[in-house]
Amino acid sequence: MKNIVIFASGAGSNAQKIIDHFRGSDIARVALIVCNKPGAGVLEIAAREGIPTLLIEREAFLHSDVYVQQLKAIPAHLIVLAGFLWKIPANLVQAFPNRIINIHPALLPKFGGKGMYGHFVHEAVISAGEKESGITIHFVNEKYDDGETILQERCTITPEDTPESVARKVQLLEHQWFPVIVERLLKSL
Ligand code: GRF
């Protein structure tokens, strides 16, 4: 049985999809949800699902090994960032080579980097007059939204689309593909 650790600090809809996908699985389970935001929706999901949570503190995350040691002790086989906005420090990247993945709600390398999250992404996509958007699932390195791409899936953008409607199309792709890719990676470990 492999251990998935989800890092999330938002509503947690992707975390929920991953939890649902692996419910009753003999391949893997969500062993821990790591969060940096007290009150985040994902913490309610974890409580309802009976999944342990770890509320992390910025200084220790950036400048110590305490969380790396905790993740190794589980042990975490795959770390899945699902709406986690802090940059992952080098010591964590190096402790889990090719074992940390992120989902980005656009087609990287466009519309990525610091500050490009949530509605900012979809607003930028619409302002740029893009004809398509989508999702990028990628390995995490020490830069924002920069690691090797694992999967991209696309949706079309019509002149009637708004940032909100693009967000809905992109979220459908996220929910459809993220659990599948997590399972595919776990099977290849
Ligand atoms: C998703 O759009 C994901 O692409 C981004 O953060 C959002 C998280 O949404 N990285 P949720 O908390 O899973 O609903």
What's the short version?
With 189 residues, this protein is an alpha/beta fold. It is 40% helix and 22% strand.
Report on this model:
With 189 residues, the chain is α/β, with parallel strands linked by helices. It is 40% helix and 22% strand. It has seven helices and seven strands. A seven-stranded mixed beta sheet has the order 3-2-1-4-5-6-7, covered by helices on one side. Helix 5 links the parallel strand 4 and strand 5. The site of 5-O-phosphono-beta-D-ribofuranosylamine (GRF) has 13 residues, from helix 1 and strand 5.
Topology of this structure?
Elements lengths: L1 E6 L5 H10 L5 E8 L5 H9 L3 E3 L2 H6 L2 H8 L4 E4 L8 H6 L4 E5 L13 H10 L4 E8 L9 E8 L6 H26 L1
Parallel strand pairs: 1-2, 1-4, 2-3, 4-5
Antiparallel strand pairs: 5-6, 6-7
Helix pairs in contact: 1-7, 6-7
The structure holds 5-O-phosphono-beta-D-ribofuranosylamine.
In total, the number of strands is 7
**Low-pLDDT runs:** none
Main sheet? 7 strands, mixed
Gross morphology: globular
Helix-residue proportion: 25-40%
Going across the major beta sheet, what is the strand order? 3-2-1-4-5-6-7
Number of helices: 7
Unique bound compounds: 5-O-phosphono-beta-D-ribofuranosylamine
Q: Which structural category do the helix and sheet elements fall into? A: alpha/beta
Topology pattern, helix = H, strand = E: EHEHEHHEHEHEEH
Distance between the termini: 12 Å
Strand portion, in percent? 15-25%
- Radius of gyration over all CA atoms, rounded: 16 Å
Whole-number average pLDDT?
A: 96
